[in-house]
């Protein structure tokens, strides 16, 4: 999946509220971009059911057409899985965003390292040792 780059800005010039709004906008933008990419991939693999009467003719004329379709479906499912994982991480970071961790979350989302971690690991990275203690509480 192509990574959407974010221009690096000196966030120390922002007030706390401005930084939070900026991080929200980055997360929202990244999420929308991933959803757009996913929709494009789905549309490019979409077969119009009203045209399904042509599919057997095409498949018969192309060797291994069903294998090709199967490979496309697998690739689409993998892209869906990866996109869902990235969106999940972004939305998780959005929900734990506060004035205290806005700079840390900004650093994570502009470097794209957040994708490598589970939500629990992200919480520990963002909130520090206290997140580990809080996550075990009921």
Q: Domains counted in the coordinates: how many?
A: 1
Q: Which secondary-structure class do the elements indicate?
A: mainly alpha
- Note the beta-strand portion: under 5%
Taken from the alpha-carbon principal axes, the silhouette is elongated
Instruction: Please provide the ordered H/E string of secondary-structure elements.
Output: HHHHHH
The share of residues in helices is 55-70%
Uncertain runs are none
First-last Cα distance: 37 Å
Overall number of strands: 0
Number of helices: 6
**Biggest sheet, in brief?**
none
Mean pLDDT: 81
| Structural Rg | 21 Å
How is this fold's topology laid out?
Elements: H1 16-44, H2 55-61, H3 65-96, H4 102-111, H5 119-127, H6 129-135
Helix pairs in contact: 1-3, 1-4, 5-6
Gist of the model:
Helices cover 68% and strands 0% of the residues. The chain is mostly helical and 138 residues long. The two termini are 37 Å apart.
Q: What does this entry look like structurally?
A:
The chain is mostly helical. The chain has one domain. The protein has six helices and no strands. Helix 1 (16-44) packs parallel to helix 4 and helix 5 (119-127) crosses helix 6 (129-135). The longest helix has 32 residues, at 65-96. The model has no long low-confidence stretch (mean pLDDT 81).
């Amino acid at each position: 999946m192509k990574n959407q780059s974010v221009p690096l800005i000196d966030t120390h010039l922002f007030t706390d509220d401005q930084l939070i709004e900026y991080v929200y906008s980055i997360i929202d933008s990244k999420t929308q971009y991933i959803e757009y990419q996913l929709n494009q991939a789905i549309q490019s693999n979409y077969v119009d059911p009203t045209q399904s009467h042509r599919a057997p003719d095409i498949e018969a004329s192309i060797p291994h057409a069903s294998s090709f379709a199967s490979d496309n479906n697998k690739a689409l499912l993998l892209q869906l899985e990866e996109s869902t994982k990235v969106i999940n991480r972004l939305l998780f970071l959005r929900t734990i965003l506060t004035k205290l961790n806005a700079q840390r979350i900004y650093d994570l989302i502009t470097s794209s390292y957040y994708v490598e971690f589970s939500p629990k690991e992200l919480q520990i990275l963002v909130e520090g040792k206290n997140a580990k203690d809080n996550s075990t509480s009921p």
